[in-house]
Design a protein that fits this description.
Layout: H1 2-9, H2 80-150
Length: 151
């Protein structure tokens, strides 16, 4: 009996593949891939219906209390005093920012004026030097032509 069980547990070697189309399909019947099985889902309770009666007390807005510095407390439900304070702070900050921008603009304007003055000064010096060099060249031509004629 142990002999027969050993023979049944030992499977024959799979047949070698051949490239010819004449191979028998009976040889491949013993070889097949296992069919994968899906894992079972865990049973869950039903979530029930989402429909609730109109007069139910379980549905409706829930009142929350937030601290004053909590972001969720920033809502249109502010008092007029809070709104005035916020408006005043915003105007002051805007005024400070505008003044800083005006100061920087004035600084830029003064710098531009200084650069313009320096440019005009350098331009006039450049024109003076060009005129001076031109005069020197003309006098050197006169003197050089006069000295050639004497020799």
């Amino acid at each position: 009996m142990s002999n027969t069980s050993e023979q049944q547990s030992v499977k024959p070697n799979p047949p070698e593949r051949s490239d010819s189309s004449s191979s028998c399909s009976l040889d491949t019947q013993d070889i097949h891939a296992p069919v994968p099985t899906r894992p079972r889902l865990i049973n869950r309770k039903s979530s029930g219906t989402l429909i609730v009666p109109r007069d139910s007390m379980e549905v409706g807005p829930v009142e929350h209390e937030f601290e004053a510095d909590d972001v969720r407390a920033m809502s249109p439900r502010r008092t007029s005093e809070d709104l005035e304070n916020l408006g005043r702070e915003a105007r002051e900050e805007l005024h400070r920012h505008a003044r800083a921008l005006q100061d920087s603009l004035l600084t830029l304007f003064h710098r531009i004026e200084a650069v313009k003055e320096e440019h005009d000064k350098l331009d006039s010096n450049n024109k003076f030097l060009q005129k001076y060099i031109g005069d020197l060249m003309s006098t050197s031509k006169i003197t050089s032509s006069g000295s050639r004629g004497r020799k």
